Amino acid sequence: MNRDNAFELLKNYVKNPKLISHCIASELIMRKLSEYFGENEEEWGLAGLLHDIDVEITNADPKTHGQVSLKILSDAGIPEKVIEAISRHNEYSSPMPRITRLDHALASGETISGIIFATALVYPDKKISSVKPSSVIKRMKDKRFAASVKRENIMECEKIGIPLMDFVSLCLDALKYADLEF
Fold first, then answer.
1. Structural domain that includes position 136
2. Closest CA to 180 of 123, 102, 114
3. What angle do CA 5, 81, 19 make, to 5 degrees?
């Protein structure tokens, strides 16, 4: 499945513009991570773009989110390793732990977008391009800031060999020119 078809599939299931922006941000981050690791950019991009395809169907229920998408994605012809990573991105519903580089990249990459968006919102111009990596890391240390963002998921970047500062820099670089609603 190509990116345009995947985006149409996403829009069939996700209507909230902010959730769509989150999925696009996750896609951009995953594409940047695929480049960093020399992985398949299209597959990694699909994982980011489609990881929350069932979030509105499941009403973001942590016990089912990520699992309802399995049939949708399988029927759409998404590669099995992408489906598995999407299934594992929500550790509360997944029967399997995250084990692959793609699994950990998706969990950390999609999660960091939330704290990046929240950090941008406290900047005077509210632009991601103005956000500094040190600001994101500072905000991560404050558990009250963007409290719903699971810092432990972001820290999985280190399980795939990227130090936190480098990971934040890479993710900011992936998003700096994106015009996303957050």
1. 3-175
2. 114
3. 50
| Residue 171 within a domain | yes
Please give the residue that has the higher pLDDT: either 177 or 45: 45
Give me the number of domains the chain comprises.
1
Calculated CA dihedral for residues 77, 82, 8, 182, nearest 10 degrees: 170
Residue 30 lies in a domain: yes
pTM: 0.94
The residue with tokens 């704290």 is 115
Summarised one tens digit per residue, pLDDT across range 115-134 is 999 999 999 999 999 999 99
Spatial contact of 28 and 172, defined as CB atoms under 8 Å apart: no
Q: Kindly state whether residue 182 falls inside one of the protein's structural domains.
A: no
DSSP code per residue over 139-174: HHH-TTTTTTS-HHHHGGGGGGT--HHHHHHHHHHH
Confidence of residue 65 (pLDDT cuts 50, 70, 90): confident
134 is a domain residue:
yes
Residue 181 confidence (pLDDT) above 80: no
Instruction: Tell me how far apart the alpha carbons of residues 58 and 134 are, in angstroms, rounded to a whole number.
Output: 35
Instruction: Give the 3-state secondary structure of residue 16.
Output: coil
